[in-house]
Amino acid sequence: MSTTNADLDKPDPVTGDRKETVNPGRGILDFNVEDLQEIALTGPDAVTRRDLMSPYVWKAGDGRFGVMVRAVPALGTKLTDTGQIWAGWSEDGVNFEMLDQPSIVGGPDEQDIGGVEDPTVLLRDDGSYVVYYTGVASDMTHGEMFYAIGPSLDKLEKTGVALASTKSVGNTKEATIGRTVDGHWRLFYEYAAEDASRIGLAMGPDIAGPWDEQPTPFMPRKDGWDNWHLSPGPMLMDKPDEPVMFYNGATRDARWRIGWIAFDRECRTVVDRCIQPLLTPPPVEDRTATDIAFAASVVVDGADIWLYYSLEDRRLMRARIRRS
Questions:
Q1: Global model pTM greater than 0.90
Q2: Residue by residue, what is the 3-state secondary structure of the chain?
Q3: Which of 38, 130, 241, 295 has the most C-beta neighbours closer than 10 Å?
């Protein structure tokens, strides 16, 4: 079925917002890709033989790179779960040695027994970890955002729901969280509406809320590569007055690409947005093949900006990005 102009202009059922028009870039900033590197994991077969997605990478105080990934049963094997979350460490940000056991798995509760996905790591001042993740129900189709807390990546305890799904906002997932200048927490997240993914924004006093919903930060563009689906990606905060999100956008047939959008200091007003995607998957001969590039984290390492992402929902990459 073809998409009509009326479909494209239909307001969001939750917010009432309509799709945006592709406008010329404002020229405030731009980004270029300078290098691409494939990420390698070593460790137990239980993780290395799975397909890999959602690489959340950060730079630890001791100079090492930490990673948490979603590991999915490989394509063509039995679907036992929608994912496990594994952690590991690296000296160079490319070659990661994974821990002996997954850090978070589904169950035993029904609310996440179907699998766990989309790790986002927050390192607290006391050295403990908060990990936001999507817990998938037993039907393997519905989920919501949970969080776990622990003193180390191998000692995380599930704590509860971080942001619940509701009748109007479904499948809350893909957390992008940060602290505001006044000490509050800012949570971007993905939700489902009218057969599409959208980006929501909420503010709260603590890592688990309670959350106060904010106006929609931005919408799909009806004439763009991001005309149907949106999902939040990592925030580049090396210049506090120029926060940038590397977001994920797609057409209705879920051909995902990675773009960028710039906000004011409070992340409430869009000041610039890319016209074309920053990163796209390699060309595929088969139009039915998985055609996805999906950003998960960004690390500033000296003069380098590294954007970590997954390709085809099965392998991990990083790109060196230059701001211009």
A1: yes
A2: CCCCHHHHCCCCCCCCCCCECCCCCCCCCCEEEEEEEECEEECCHHHHCCEEEEEEEEECCCCCEEEEEEEECCCCCCCCCCCEEEEEEECCCCEEEECCCCCECCCCCHHHCCEEEEEEEEECCCCCEEEEEEEECCCCCCEEEEEEEECCCCCCEEEEEEECCCCCCEEEEEEEEEECCCCCEEEEEEEEECCEEEEEEEEECCCCCCCEECCCCCCCECCCCCCCEEECCCEECCCCCCCEEEEEEECCCCCEEEEEEEECCCCCCEEEECCCCCECCCCCCCCCCCCEEEEEEEEEECCEEEEEEEECCCEEEEEEEEEC
A3: 295
